[in-house]
Design brief:
The chain has one domain: 4-Layer Sandwich (Purple Acid Phosphatase, chain A, domain 2), CATH 3.60.21. Helices cover 33% and strands 14% of the residues. It is built from 11 helices and 10 strands. The protein has a 5-stranded mixed beta sheet, covered by helices on one side. A 5-stranded mixed beta sheet has the order 4-5-6-8-7, with helices on one face. The chain is globular and about 45 Å long. The N and C termini lie far apart (36 Å).
């Protein structure tokens, strides 16, 4: 069994298909660790979750956008409360993908998603980060799903050429913060000692990346906005508008 990790496809089903094909993923035998945010942004969230459900050995973590979608479709906090801050951050595309209801199997994927996972060989996966001063199991959902404090601290040390080794873990993999938001030229996963940032900006102008956990080989999709050339996603312009205007887009 090969082990792969990816994160933050944000409705980009076509990018997910490309990544799985390019790495030679075996749906019956290989394992995929998906670090959250399969929803919101591009138009094919429903197709994306359907694809993930076809993988026999899927380990799915909840992302902050998944939490928003879960609140909306399970009525946890009322639809208005969930949608107020969600729609402009990609939620509108998820609602368009599903309509009024999410299929039970899709909803169950989000309901059963873990907040973090540690493998038998001591690799930690978490969507956003964690507070290293307390045990991982004592971290609250906000820290694990939303906070960028962990990434910002470690990136600051990395830029000072003083990367931290995160103990007690062999390796740590994080999504949530696009590498291209930290450095426009960082279009591939960012390695900082035993920490890897795997989100390479698929929600915006970047690619979706997938990595073999053991060989560390990386495969990438095309730039996701080129796969949805008439959609803005979470950018200011569509790919076709960008080509015509010669302007720039977010990230």
């Amino acid at each position: 069994m090969k082990r792969f990790v990816t994160s933050d496809s944000h409705g980009g089903y076509r990018a997910l298909v490309q990544c799985l094909a390019r790495c030679g993923f075996d749906k019956k035998n290989d394992q995929l660790f998906f670090l959250g945010d399969v929803v919101d942004g591009w138009s094919e969230t429903k197709e994306s979750i359907e694809l993930l459900l076809s993988l026999r050995h899927l380990l799915f973590l909840l992302g902050n956008h998944d939490q928003w979608a879960l609140a909306y479709y399970s009525h946890q906090n009322g639809r208005k409360a969930a949608s107020d801050s969600w729609q402009s951050q990609g939620g509108r595309a998820t609602v368009k993908s599903y309509g009024a209801a999410m299929p039970p199997a899709h909803l169950a994927l989000l309901q059963k998603a873990r907040l973090y996972h540690i493998t038998s060989d001591n690799i930690l996966f978490v969507h956003a980060g964690f507070d290293e001063c307390i045990p991982i199991e004592e971290n609250d959902a906000y820290t694990l799903l939303w906070s960028r404090d962990f990434v910002e601290e470690h990136y600051s040390h990395y830029k000072q050429h003083k990367p931290d080794r995160i103990s007690p873990y062999k390796e740590v993999y994080i999504g949530h913060t696009p590498t291209i938001a930290l450095d426009r030229k960082q279009t591939s996963p960012l390695h900082m000692e035993n920490l890897t940032l795997i989100d390479t900006g698929a929600a915006f102008t970047g690619c979706l990346s997938i990595m073999d956990l053991d060989s560390k080989q990386v495969w990438q999709s095309d730039k996701v906005m080129t796969l949805y050339p008439n959609e803005t996603g979470r950018n200011r312009q569509t790919w076709n508008q960008l080509l015509k205007s010669g302007g720039s887009v977010f990230y």
